[in-house]
Amino acid sequence: MGKSKFKEKIILGIDPGTTIMGYSILFVSGHDLSVQQYGILRLSKYQNYQLKLKTIQERTDQIIASYAPDELAIEAPFYGKNAQSMLKLGRAQGVVIGCALRHGLPFAEYAPKKVKQAVTGNGNASKEQIAKMLEKILGLDHKEEIELDATDALAVALCHHYQENSITGHKETWKSFLTKNQGRIIDP
Prior knowledge:
By secondary structure, the protein is an alpha/beta fold.
């Protein structure tokens, strides 16, 4: 038997934040995708900003050690009116990227609009629309309230997977995707 033309890989997706950080582990085997884990890290209980960054670093190191991801996909800070918030978000992102570098993990950053476009086809989709689409794409079955920062992290990992496929020539056009996946299309 010949070698499989598709490589298996594990993608760590991160939605950085200083109040809540979302994380996800997406396993890719050929065209098959499976969610290994996703959740949030609540940081609001820490009064000291340095403690928040230390906790982000420690938890990211733990996730990398536990799941041995092959790549990191992280959402880039969005440009808003509040420069202070953007600076804090950038620091949180920098801590996660530093962990990836220390572990020899290649990483890619994705703008929020790119992530939304990749997952829903709409760069202005709401967090709820992203969560719904992820349920359909990845077959998630939730009986509890979904934590939207966790699904945002999952969306970043999925966006990275789609981006990697487009680079390697396995890109599927939106038209062919829609034709093959009529049952997965939801109305906003």
